[in-house]
């Protein structure tokens, strides 16, 4: 048998009694002792009688140089490769992750058996005390982190209109910042509507967590936090994400450094507990209208009308972000209200396009565009189909949301005079014609009168 084969067999038959003879020891001592025993058995198995030093990085480097200086090059090279493999195995074992849900790594378990008063040759028990194993490997989740996760989950469903006021930010200032975010996405020409909405949602969530933690954030950090959230959300949503160079020079114009962005990014990730899933009303509304318009092929809805429908959804979705009360509504209800409002807008749009009233003949309707009658009929049928799918109790909630959205749109100039960018991005919806169509979309609420006794 070759001497090198004898060496490998000797290493495989490493006795656990030699390693664990000194009693309980920590992980570092275990590795050191294991390397010493393996080197002793290697030297005894081979004919080379020289004493080998302790296995460390200096020993590896010395053995690498000896490959070219020693006359016995093959043996020296084998020793050097073997020592490199030992170090790589040690690093790999230390870096191997373990979780309680998955099957733990066998090597890590055997390294921890000394603390559990077992030997290496003993079979691994089926029911291992993972809490004790985690304490050995320093993988225990702190109790404070568990409480923080539970609190953050509860805050996800909590609607709080006065989030920003705790931090000294008024609703008008928040709306101006959201309007500025619209400008950032328009200037960069990157990022989707969903990226914008996720950044706005996580902005409120971040400030909400800080509020209920009793931490007040300075108003000076408002822009830095918003830019960092745009960068984070773009990494998750966009196929071509916004770069750090664009954030620093095109969005903030050199106001911040990359170190500030990365430091704030780490702090935001820890505060949000790395939970970025957002139940977006925008996705629900877009998918619902897409399925509804493609469900009835006989209606023959053109691709141009489908693009207009999607543009209305984009406009309403970005508009309601500025109003905290509407933005914190239930995503499912908000998506249904957006779908209903979009269908009503298209219906009244084609009514206004196809008909005109003649004041001289008792306000009789005159057909202006006969080609648009098919489109008008199609959206009237879609609106009826949508209303049939909605329960009566839910209709009242959707109508109330629609009224709040239209009223906020109608009073936007008076309530938020400093807003400019949403007008630039959606000029079509701020004309007199579009304003009249949206006001016609106001649903009628039936008021129940109490019967007099």
Topology pattern, helix = H, strand = E: HHHHHHHHHHHHHHHHHHEEHHHHH
- Report how far apart the termini are: 110 Å
Strand order of the largest sheet: 1-2
Cα-based radius of gyration, to the nearest Å: 34 Å
What summary fits the major beta sheet?
2 strands, antiparallel
Overall SS class: mainly alpha
Report on the structure:
The chain is mostly helical and 453 residues long. The chain has three domains: 3-137, no CATH class; 147-271, Cyclin-like (Cyclin A, domain 1, Orthogonal Bundle), CATH 1.10.472; 281-440, no CATH class. It has 23 helices and two strands. The protein has helices spanning 3-12, 16-19, 27-45, 57-69, 73-95, 106-112, 130-137, 143-156, 163-166, 171-188, 193-212, 222-237, 244-251, 258-271, 281-295, 303-319, 324-327, 331-354, 372-389, 392-410, 412-415, 421-425, 432-440, and strands at 355-358, 364-367. A two-stranded antiparallel sheet has the order 1-2. A hairpin with a 5-residue loop joins strand 1 (355-358) and strand 2. Helix 15 (281-295) packs across helix 18. The radius of gyration is 34 Å and the shape is elongated. The protein starts with a helix and ends in a 13-residue tail after the last helix.
Q: Secondary-structure blueprint of this entry?
A:
Blueprint: H1 3-12, H2 16-19, H3 27-45, H4 57-69, H5 73-95, H6 106-112, H7 130-137, H8 143-156, H9 163-166, H10 171-188, H11 193-212, H12 222-237, H13 244-251, H14 258-271, H15 281-295, H16 303-319, H17 324-327, H18 331-354, E1 355-358, E2 364-367, H19 372-389, H20 392-410, H21 412-415, H22 421-425, H23 432-440
Antiparallel strand pairs: 1-2
Domain Cyclin N-terminal: 152-275
Biased composition (Polar residues): 34-51, 58-72
Protein name: Cyclin N-terminal domain-containing protein
